[in-house]
Design brief:
Number of strands: 0
Transmembrane segments: 12-36, 42-60, 80-103, 115-134, 146-168, 174-195, 215-233, 253-274, 295-319, 325-349, 356-379, 385-403, 415-431, 437-455
Protein name: Oligosaccharide flippase family protein
Strand content: under 5%
Main location: membrane
Order of helices and strands: HHHHHHHHHHHHHHHHHHHH
Number of helices: 20
Number of domains: 2
Helix content: over 70%
Membrane topology: Multi-pass membrane protein
Subcellular location: Cell membrane
Length: 470
């Protein structure tokens, strides 16, 4: 399979990501005019709680589904789905009961005051997240990129519509975002089931089969918990040292940066099955992984510099109460950039099944982020959280790359990426502490031009490929 095949596959998975990004770009300014930063902050805490719950309830069985998918004949893959789904639903029920019992105390801890029904909504949202996760996996593992993209678009559209409707006609609190999120999951789940009905037909499952998938997946749970801690320390620190309003501004910045996170999601959904398939076909074809790394590095750094260049213009679209988010966003750019690039460099750990390294890497990165947030958040608030988190993802990338190269040497070009990281960090520093729009535009565009120069050979390869295809 040549480059055209992989470009087509990437496009099919990414088109939904881009459309979702457009929807998010349009909807976020509207929502900021309807919901104040403090309520936005409460919705971020709700999302964070869902994150830690899903780290536990899956028991790693979503990873088991990916691992065993190609080992099962097509007609038996719905058995595998239910083997993995039933344990997750069981744990979700236990977690939901605990949440309902301690609901009032948790509500005060997270949202600063008790909210009736929020823990019931949490329980419903948790079930939806479990079903939606496997809904996406059934599509992704079959490489049905356009259906996967349709699900993404439906999810984003339903979230936007129902959030706005709730805010306009019922309440302008964070319940609107929670309700919109749940309706987005519901709509996406219905679309996925419609296209893959055969997967959702329940069959009797043997306990021995469930034990097998749990045994494989359970070791992933500590890694997921530490990874959750790594990605949530910023909001935890802001809750401890700052205010819900700061969390709201931070979350709004994340929403705008999510345009790049969506590229990350689209690439990851495409990359994981392709990487495994390529390795199984020819484990010695290391050039393929090096080329993929260079291509995604070019895309991510180029896009990052453009966002940094025009961030002040972009954030003018938000309500005035959210304008300060423009100076929080710059270092958050490093999150999707370094994570996405590391997905191409971490392959050695996955191929050699040394997955315990994921726990070590996440733990070390989380420790770095904790120390950074502890030092910077009391001084700089949300900007400090963004700086710490951004550099923590650089550490995350470095550890993934170094360890993976020891296990399965590809020979990635680390010099180019090092230059790009230093350059984009400098531009982000300007964007965080200098409010001169012209200076930010010049710095961002200069970084963009330097990136195109560094990766000029890769650009020439893209051009040749497009000409051949034409």
């Amino acid at each position: 399979m040549g480059s055209k095949y992989y470009l087509k596959a990437f496009f099919s998975f990414s088109i939904g990501t881009w459309l979702r990004g457009i929807i998010s770009f349009i909807s976020t300014p509207i929502i900021t005019y309807l919901i104040i930063p403090a309520e936005f902050g409460r919705s971020a805490m709700f999302t964070m709680l869902i994150g830690i719950a899903t780290s536990v309830v899956f028991l790693g069985t979503d990873q088991s589904f990916v691992r065993y998918f190609y080992e099962y004949p097509e007609e038996e893959r719905n058995n595998l789905l239910w083997m993995c789904l039933l344990p997750s639903l069981s744990i979700a029920t236990i977690v939901s009961i605990i949440m309902l019992i301690f609901g009032s105390k948790l509500s005060i801890l997270l949202y600063d005051k008790p909210y009736p029904y929020i823990n019931l909504l949490f329980a419903l949202a948790l079930y939806l997240v479990v079903f939606q996760r496997f809904n996406q996996l059934t599509i992704r593992m079959q490489k049905k990129g356009f259906i996967f993209s349709l699900i993404e678009v439906v999810n984003a559209s339903a979230y936007t519509v129902f959030t706005i409707i709730y805010a306009l006609f019922i309440s302008r609190g964070f319940y609107a975002i929670v309700f919109g999120t749940m309706m987005g999951y519901t709509a996406a789940l219905l679309v996925g089931i419609f296209f893959e009905t055969k997967f959702w037909k329940f069959r009797k499952i043997k306990m021995s089969d469930i034990k097998k998938v749990v045994a494989y997946g359970l070791p992933f749970v500590p890694t997921f918990l530490v990874s959750w801690l790594f990605s949530s320390i910023d909001r935890i620190s802001l809750k401890q040292y700052s205010t819900l309003t700061e969390i709201g501004l931070y979350s709004a910045a994340f929403k705008i940066v999510s345009a790049m996170s969506l590229i990350q999601i689209g690439f990851t959904n495409f990359w994981i099955p392709v990487a495994y398939e390529r390795y199984e076909l020819n484990s010695e074809d290391r050039r393929f992984f090096k080329r993929a790394n260079e291509a995604i590095s070019l895309v991510m750094f180029s896009f990052g510099f453009l966002v940094l260049a025009f961030k002040d213009i972009i954030f003018l679209l938000l309500a005035k109460t959210y304008r300060e988010s423009a100076y929080i966003a710059p270092f958050l750019i490093l999150n999707p950039i370094m994570y996405t690039i590391s997905e191409t460099t971490v392959v050695g750990i996955n191929f050699k099944k040394k997955t315990y390294w994921h726990l070590v890497i996440a733990a070390f990165s989380a420790l770095f982020n904790y120390l950074g947030n502890t030092i910077l958040v009391p001084i700089y608030g949300a900007r400090g959280a963004a700086i710490s988190t951004g550099f923590a993802y650089v550490i995350f990338y470095l550890l993934r790359t170094m360890i993976s190269e020891k296990l399965y040497r590809v020979g990635f070009d680390k010099i180019k990426i090092t230059i790009e990281v230093i350059l984009i960090s400098f531009v982000a520093l300007i964007g965080t502490f200098d409010k001169t729009m012209v200076l930010n535009i010049i710095a961002g565009l200069l970084g963009f031009v330097i990136t195109l120069t560094i990766y000029r050979k890769k650009i020439s390869q893209f051009r040749e490929l497009i000409v051949k295809k034409g």
